[in-house]
Please model this.
Amino acid sequence: MPTVRGCNLPDELFYDVANNLWYRPESDGTFTVGMTVVATGMAGALVAFTAKKVGKTIDAGKSVATIESGKWVGPAKIGFQSEIVAVNDILTGNPKLANTDTYGEGWMVRVKPVDAGEPNSVLTPGSAVAAPYEAKMAADNFVGCAA
Model:
């Protein structure tokens, strides 16, 4: 598992580094999506999570959810055009799960790509994510996840 500046980035996931999201491919062709530990580290403790509705199609680069912490409010932007097929209602009720179980119960939405091949062209595999994340963290002046 790559670790960049104390931030764990599991190999089995795919990443949209620019938008600080992780993607886990599911057997039915959908992707489970969540914030990376880099995103939660930068945002701090989440206080609200509001996802778009199931059934809505979201264009690439548009928001699938709004995230709010004590120091930031903003969109979680999807990397490719997708239909939302599930929302993590548990996260809606307990947004801090994104901080405490980022790659597990803290997932945000499950999406189905409109074009099944598009994720391959926009996502970075976990095995190749260390260098892009090091560059992004340097550009964002983010020291890392270590407390």
Notes: The mean pLDDT is 95.
